[in-house]
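Many introductory courses stop at the sequence. We go one step further.
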Amino acid sequence: MNRCLTSLAIGASLALAGTAQAQSEASTTSTTTTTVLPAPAPGTQAGVRSFPKEALRGTLTVKLPPHVEMDDRVTRLTPGARILDESNRNLRSASLVNRELTVNYLMDRQGQITQVWILSEAEKKERRRTLGVERNFSFESQQGAAQPATLPATR
């Protein structure tokens, strides 16, 4: 029985000695590494991401995940949908509930959204195709403030 405990103790002490030696070697030798980022593509502004050609522009409002409203159409996010913010960080759809966002997005063949990019101000200026809503009618509430009707004075 003591043989098992002895071999475990020896193995643990060797492992600790190896990590201590690696740490001391790392502290004595210092190397500096620099990362060179690729230059932006010609014709693009710095800070503007490049999107796929088939990406569409729209207004996204997350209602109850995975259900979203895209340009007044109710649709869904696919189970593996990715939502990326302006810095290309992954976001959860639950953190965006009831926020109206201008986005570029990709859809699959079933009409579900697979990828969403939340746009910065510079990216919003770029023109892109949309599946926006076109209506051949308008409501009075969309025309501006309604003027109160005045009734003629009666005696």
